[in-house]
Design a protein that fits this description.
This protein has a domain at about 25-55. With about 80 residues, the chain is mostly helical. The chain has helices spanning about 1-25, 30-60. It is about 65% helix and about 0% strand. The protein is rod-shaped, with a radius of gyration of 38 Å.
Length: about 80
Protein backbone atom coordinates (compact mmCIF):
# COMPACT_ATOMS: atom_id res chain seq x y z
CA UNK A 1 0.00 0.00 0.00
CA UNK A 2 2.79 2.43 0.82
CA UNK A 3 4.43 1.78 -2.54
CA UNK A 4 1.19 2.56 -4.39
CA UNK A 5 0.73 5.75 -2.35
CA UNK A 6 4.29 6.87 -3.14
CA UNK A 7 3.74 6.12 -6.83
CA UNK A 8 0.50 8.17 -6.93
CA UNK A 9 2.13 11.10 -5.12
CA UNK A 10 5.05 10.95 -7.57
CA UNK A 11 2.72 10.97 -10.58
CA UNK A 12 0.77 13.92 -9.15
CA UNK A 13 3.98 15.86 -8.48
CA UNK A 14 5.23 15.18 -12.02
CA UNK A 15 1.86 16.34 -13.36
CA UNK A 16 2.13 19.60 -11.43
CA UNK A 17 5.59 20.28 -12.80
CA UNK A 18 4.53 19.45 -16.34
CA UNK A 19 1.58 21.83 -16.04
CA UNK A 20 3.81 24.73 -15.06
CA UNK A 21 6.25 23.92 -17.87
CA UNK A 22 3.39 23.79 -20.38
CA UNK A 23 2.02 27.13 -19.12
CA UNK A 24 5.44 28.75 -19.58
CA UNK A 25 5.59 27.58 -23.20
CA UNK A 26 2.39 29.36 -24.24
CA UNK A 27 2.88 32.55 -26.21
CA UNK A 28 1.44 35.86 -25.23
CA UNK A 29 -1.51 36.75 -27.52
CA UNK A 30 -0.40 40.39 -27.65
CA UNK A 31 3.04 39.31 -28.79
CA UNK A 32 1.45 37.17 -31.51
CA UNK A 33 -0.53 40.18 -32.75
CA UNK A 34 2.60 42.34 -32.78
CA UNK A 35 4.53 39.72 -34.76
CA UNK A 36 1.67 39.48 -37.28
CA UNK A 37 1.56 43.28 -37.66
CA UNK A 38 5.31 43.36 -38.22
CA UNK A 39 5.07 40.67 -40.91
CA UNK A 40 2.20 42.54 -42.58
CA UNK A 41 4.16 45.80 -42.53
CA UNK A 42 7.20 44.11 -44.06
CA UNK A 43 5.04 42.60 -46.81
CA UNK A 44 3.45 45.97 -47.58
CA UNK A 45 6.86 47.65 -47.65
CA UNK A 46 8.21 44.99 -50.01
CA UNK A 47 5.22 45.45 -52.35
CA UNK A 48 5.70 49.22 -52.25
CA UNK A 49 9.36 48.95 -53.20
CA UNK A 50 8.57 46.48 -55.99
CA UNK A 51 5.99 48.89 -57.38
CA UNK A 52 8.48 51.75 -57.27
CA UNK A 53 11.05 49.65 -59.13
CA UNK A 54 8.50 48.74 -61.80
CA UNK A 55 7.44 52.34 -62.33
CA UNK A 56 11.03 53.54 -62.52
CA UNK A 57 11.80 50.95 -65.20
CA UNK A 58 8.69 51.85 -67.22
CA UNK A 59 9.14 55.63 -67.23
CA UNK A 60 10.99 57.07 -70.19
CA UNK A 61 14.29 58.76 -69.49
CA UNK A 62 14.33 62.53 -69.47
CA UNK A 63 15.69 64.06 -72.63
CA UNK A 64 18.78 66.15 -72.25
CA UNK A 65 17.75 68.55 -75.02
CA UNK A 66 14.61 70.62 -75.13
CA UNK A 67 14.40 70.85 -78.93
CA UNK A 68 10.95 69.54 -79.97
CA UNK A 69 11.91 69.58 -83.69
CA UNK A 70 15.05 67.51 -83.27
CA UNK A 71 13.63 64.43 -84.93
CA UNK A 72 12.09 66.46 -87.80
CA UNK A 73 15.31 68.02 -89.06
CA UNK A 74 17.75 66.36 -91.33
CA UNK A 75 21.38 65.66 -90.59
CA UNK A 76 22.50 68.99 -92.15
CA UNK A 77 20.79 72.12 -90.74
CA UNK A 78 22.68 74.62 -92.85
CA UNK A 79 21.01 76.41 -95.76
CA UNK A 80 21.93 75.17 -99.22
CA UNK A 81 24.47 77.33 -101.05
CA UNK A 82 23.31 79.05 -104.24
Amino acid sequence: MAILRAFIVGVLMAGCFMGSVYAAEKKNPLKDEEEQRQKDNEAIDQQYRATLDRTRRNTPEARTTTDPWQSMRGADDSKPKR
